[in-house]
Amino acid sequence: MTDIDFKNVGMSDVFPEVDEKKTRQKVASFLSRTLPRMVRITSKSLTELRSQRLDGMPKGSSSDNDSDRRIVQHLYAEQVVKQVKQAISQCDQESQDILNMLYFKNYSDTQCYMALGRSGSSYSHLYKPQALLEFADCYFLDDLHIYQAE
């Protein structure tokens, strides 16, 4: 194992500068497009995915491979959903509320800021962007950050 000389390592070497706008866009896309797909995939039972028709005739392994692929997709989707819930739980309470309302309860932005008792402006310029960035910091299955080019 290589020792790290922390005296010669700067914060930007370990944590490169994040492009906040692009990161927020990526997180919003992930939560609004990818997450619902993962939830749909996990709604199928593993027995549904595995069932095969047995007619006694020899077959190639393509259906086995397809079944295996679907099972792996199902298991990965379960991990995504689990990690999303875990990441949201690691955010501060206001960000948890925003993320849960938007992506699990399907609130609109207007419904969300009204439920929080915030102005539309402060919600869209401060609270929602902060929630998306916190989520990116807390989600560890993939890196949702977009880094600034140097």
From TrEMBL:
The protein's name is ArpU family phage packaging/lysis transcriptional regulator
